[in-house]
Amino acid sequence: MSTVRMCDRCGNIFSEREDGWTSMTATTVRRNEKGELRSQQENLDACPRCSAGPVVPRPMLAERNGDDVEPAAR
């Protein structure tokens, strides 16, 4: 069984056996409890889709109750 990873961009779970995923080291700057800026290095994984380019928002349908939807005209 292959190891699984989670994409740090979109949250997708993917197998290490998939083609095209990436792993990278990134530097994140955060303020500590004293308000000082500190940099922290983190390892990030990206699934094949997110590795192909910037994350493009995908259209999603809003959830509906169903009562407010009129049947399609025939």
Strand order of the largest sheet: 1-2
Q: Mean pLDDT score, rounded?
A: 84
What gap, in angstroms, lies between the N and C termini? 51 Å
Structural class of the secondary structure composition? mainly beta
Characterize the overall form. Answer: extended
Number of DSSP E strands: 4
How big a fraction of the residues is strand?
35-45%
Compute the CA-based radius of gyration: 20 Å
Oligomer: single chain
Specify the biggest β-sheet: 2 strands, antiparallel
Characterise the protein shown here.
The structure is a single chain. With 74 residues, the chain is mainly beta. The strands form two sheets. A two-stranded antiparallel ribbon has the order 1-2. Strands 3-4 form a two-stranded antiparallel sheet. A hairpin with a 5-residue loop joins strand 3 and strand 4 (37-46). It has a domain at 4-51. The protein is built from one helix and four strands, in the order E-E-E-E-H.
In a nutshell, what does this entry contain?
The protein has 74 residues and is mostly beta strands. The chain is built from one helix and four strands, in the order ββββα.
Task: Furnish the topology, listing elements before pairings.
Layout: E1 4-6, E2 13-15, E3 22-31, E4 37-46, H1 48-51
Summary tags:
extended; mainly beta; two-stranded antiparallel sheet; single chain; 74 residues; two-stranded antiparallel ribbon; 1 helix
